[in-house]
UniProtKB/TrEMBL annotation:
UniProt-listed Enzyme Commission number(s): 2.7.7.12
One Pfam entry name: GalP_UDP_transf
Keyword field: Carbohydrate metabolism, Cytoplasm, Galactose metabolism, Nucleotidyltransferase, Transferase
Transmembrane segments: none
Subcellular location: Cytoplasm
EC main group: transferase
Entry similarity comment: Belongs to the galactose-1-phosphate uridylyltransferase type 2 family.
Protein's organism: Exiguobacterium undae
The protein's name: Galactose-1-phosphate uridylyltransferase
Pathway: Carbohydrate metabolism; galactose metabolism
Main localization, broad class: cytoplasm
Catalytic activity: alpha-D-galactose 1-phosphate + UDP-alpha-D-glucose = alpha-D-glucose 1-phosphate + UDP-alpha-D-galactose
Occurrences of domain Galactose-1-phosphate uridyl transferase C-terminal (ranges): 244-435
Amino acid sequence: MNELIKQLVEQAIRHQLIQPEDAVYARNRLLALLGEAAYTDPGTVDTASIPDILDAMIEQQIAAGQSAARLDEKERLAAELMDVFVDRPSTITSTFRRLYAESPQQATDYFYQLSQANNYIQTKRIAKNIQYQADTVYGEIDITINLSKPEKDPREIAAARTEIVDSTYPTCLLCVENVGYAGRINHPARANHRIVPLSLEGEAWALQYSPYVYYNEHSIILSQTHRDMVIDRQAFARLLDFVAQFPHYFAGSNADLPIVGGSILTHDHYQGGRYEFAMDRAQALHEFVLPDHPDVTGETLHWPLTVVRLSSSDASALLDAADEVYQTWLTYEDAEHEIIAATDGVRHNTVTPIARMRGERFELDLVLRNNRTSAEHPDGIFHTHADIHHIKRENIGLIEVMGLAVLPARLLSELKEVEQFITGTSQVAPSHQAWAEELKATYAGQDVSDYVRQAVAAKFVRGLEDCGVFKQTEHGQAGLGRFLETVSRQVAGDRR
């Protein structure tokens, strides 16, 4: 254990989590957490990564009977060990603000590197993900088979049945109370977690990074008040405020309704980061104007979902225009395209908004969404249909909307079976059978892994097309044109 302690301290110094003068203090805190009575310098030690050192420490603790082998206990100990090296929130905030005064990018670089070095961002687990890019009719999109989030240990599941935890603190996974929280059987360890306070439109918000980043600098922008997600004019204003403060980042929100929304609708939050998605590069199809907003450019995109893109050098004018598009969409109906705004007072129409800066111009994408269901499509008329569910059944949220597929871990083994079926006689899961037979019929001897990967991408894009309220067809685009004419008439009517 002494060797591992020395390695961890040396790596913390190397990653600038602590200074050399902090080494003795850090070592003694580690000894206390690990139940070690004394330390003897082991001399020169091998160098390993921080996640590998932590894993080795925890395994030694388990072998010695000093820690349970459950996943939640492992994560709790790892977070506590790394918290030894992480500054207090006030110090991190002070450093972030000092660097921000020099450059917003310097500030986020510092915070992102810190969040990786302190093992809050799970770099070792993220490296397990299968990631590739594929060419489609909409350009090159990103595919990820998500292997980073560990499955629950059977021992943890069993413990959860017997260990009664009567606590609602922290209220949810995104609340600010998670900073430094030790964790428990049904709540992840967050001892090494830090956030940076922000002000968006005069409200208290905060910036953190996702522990399982799906793209570069995948960040979460969260309200410091626990409240439901709402998409409205104020949400658009906050997104524009964020990209004005951090022009090298985009910021977007999941929709605020089930089926078309994200996985957490009970805490107001957005996502951001420093990444160019396929949708960012999508070709503009048609330009339109809003009579009251001559300084705002409107475009529709060649993209599987229905995107209204607005841009202007004037954030205030852009906000007004976006709100008018949104307010029109909230009550818009088009039975020909199965769009009904509400059923028995329950709303169906909403948007997925994404803000970014292009040079000196603000840009705001409003992706039109509708969460109606039907007997034919009980999971959603504008959700991936049943023939896509063997690849992707989960909600199509912000990240997928922009062209990055986050696919379930089960596909790792299932797609291998599909490859073997195509090139041989092995069987596949019934859910993949029809698709695998189609692929086998058109297989022409190319690299089978690449062939299946491209087919997965094509399926994913097909699923995105299901989510488009106005399809990329002549009929669908005519419907979108009628909606935009309605927006213009509504603007003109408001003016009169």
